[in-house]
Amino acid sequence: MIIRLLSKNILYSLWSFSLAVLLCSLGIASTISILWLQTSLEAHAARQAKGIDLVIGAKGSGVQTTLAAVYHADVPSGNISLASIEQLAKHPMVARVEPISLGDSVAGARIVGAHNSFIDFYEARLALGALPAQPMDAVLGARVAARTKLAIGERFVGNHGLAAGGEAHDSHPYAVVGVLAPTGRVIDDLVITPLASVWLAHEGHTGSTEPEVTFALVSLASPIAMATLPRFINTQTNLQASAPAIESARLLANFGWVSTIVKGFAAALILSALLATFAALAQAVERRQIDIALMRAMGVPRLRIGLLLVSETLATVLVSTLIAAAMVLLGALWLRGHALPGLVLDWRVGGVIALACVTMAALLAFIAALPCLWRAYRIDVAAQLSRA
Amino acid sequence: MPDSASPSALDRRTVLDLAVTAFAHPGGERLALPAFTLREREIVILRGRSGSGKSTLLHLVAGLLALAPSDGRIALDGQALAGLSQTARDRLRPHRVGWVPQRVHLIGALSVLDNVLLPVALSASPDTPGPSPVAARERARFLLQDAGIDSLAHCEPGKLSVGQAARACIARALLCTPRLVCADEPSAALDLASTATIAAMFAHYCRVGGAALIASHDSAFVDALKLQAEFVTEISMDAA
Known about the structure:
The complex is a heterodimer of chains A (388) and B (240).
Chain A: H1 2-12, H2 14-48, E1 54-58, H3 62-69, E2 80-81, H4 82-89, E3 94-106, E4 109-114, H5 117-121, E5 126-129, E6 137-140, H6 142-148, E7 155-156, E8 159-160, E9 174-180, E10 190-193, H7 195-201, E11 212-213, E12 215-220, H8 223-236, E13 239-242, H9 244-254, H10 256-287, H11 289-297, H12 302-339, H13 347-377, H14 381-387
Parallel strand pairs in A: 4-10, 6-9
Antiparallel strand pairs in A: 1-12, 1-13, 2-11, 3-4, 3-8, 3-12, 5-9, 6-10, 7-9
Helix pairs in contact in A: 1-12, 2-10, 2-12, 2-13, 3-9, 10-11, 10-12, 10-13, 11-14, 12-13
Chain B: H1 7-11, E1 14-20, E2 22-24, E3 30-32, E4 35-39, E5 42-47, H2 54-61, E6 72-76, E7 79-80, H3 86-96, E8 97-100, H4 112-123, H5 133-146, H6 162-174, E9 180-184, H7 192-207, E10 212-215, H8 219-228, E11 231-236
């Protein structure tokens, strides 16, 4: 009967209930999305930079170097000599160096010249075929293979530049020799080929007589090296050393205000929802004073009447939660399928954030309901019945 | 006053024993209230001018107003009400007092049947579980049939006439088979036919062992009660 009374009361004031649910679900969905997306993006950024303590490139912006070398989301500022990188690899503070060469692309995927150890560096393994054995052999990242439908043994031509529409290197086609299994890292969106392939494709283009690479991804031997080596490289050589961890943090800090504004907007939505819930409940208590007095006259305890009113508020939060969960789920699937294909969404973290948001919303809704509960609790039954 | 010395009165158990010397609402003037005893199968009609304390007396008997022990004594089915907390009085009410309000009022969000079932659905507690849902439903259907509105059980209250709604209110008050039914001007705003019907409902309930305390200044209603009930006593509140 309580559930029937609850549902009938909700249907009776459907418009105010719908408004409260709309605001509340938007507020909850925004809050969950922002917190979950922020957590996922931070984890995503950290996963892409795993094992890369430093990026060495040509002199320029540290943020640009990190974006171009680690996330493959910017263009490099120039090339550096392979010899200087090989020299750096002998430094006692350096544990591992992976030189990479950029410059071309195929169907929007970057072609990365690198040693085969680059594939190990990203903890990737072959799903099909073999590793490159000679120049112009190419291994496709999992998403590149899925998108381009290139099969082992097929050939393709790289375009000059990292954007579509560049000059095609027709004279130096690549041969697909292998396909990598998905890793959830940036390598899924790359085409890996030996360094010599890039040099062959750009023969006569660079104007340099010695072999060049674009970046070197460096793992340091100890945390202490982080304090001294970048400064040494930046001041004593013509190379640029940037630390992805520091540059990413700086980048996120620069855009922190966006996150703060969106969080504020979500908080405002939730507060509006609570005000709407409070207004709907206050209106309901006013309208149902005689109902409440009659129920009291029938012997219905005050606590049970309070529960009935609270359950109306909690029903708002419950329905809003279900709608918000559906909105977040659809948004997450769209994000992973279209906007950020490499983004790994941790459903457990999402669940914890959702639970925390809903608990907070329910608590705030209960607090918003307290004045109405007090009013219902204090109803003068005899006076109401005399008016009835 | 009821004739408590008659043999039939001695056979009937006391439902209400009231001896309130005076009562005052906070900030209001003191009302002199009559002392009387109400037994099973009996209807006591409180008559008097507006403001004479009829509703106050009903509220005190139903435990809706608190009575200090110094103000007098009300014993409902042997249970003294004076000095009891509101929670304790709330707990006593469902199965001892059925309430019929002055103005017909049913909860608009529920059907007529659900309105009648409300006291059992919402008042049940581990101490007073009341009838089972099936038994309550059966009794509600019986009461609606008795009131002649069984066919309207699943209607919204808004579709009932005032007379039909008044009968539904009485059915709701009788659902838990309370020891005493309190009614405050139950025939106000009713036509003669409806007045006769609700008088018959009260009379029937009392004939089968119930008791009623009714505030009314409707002579037609009182006459109808006198015709149909076994024991009817009128008490003038003006004289108290």
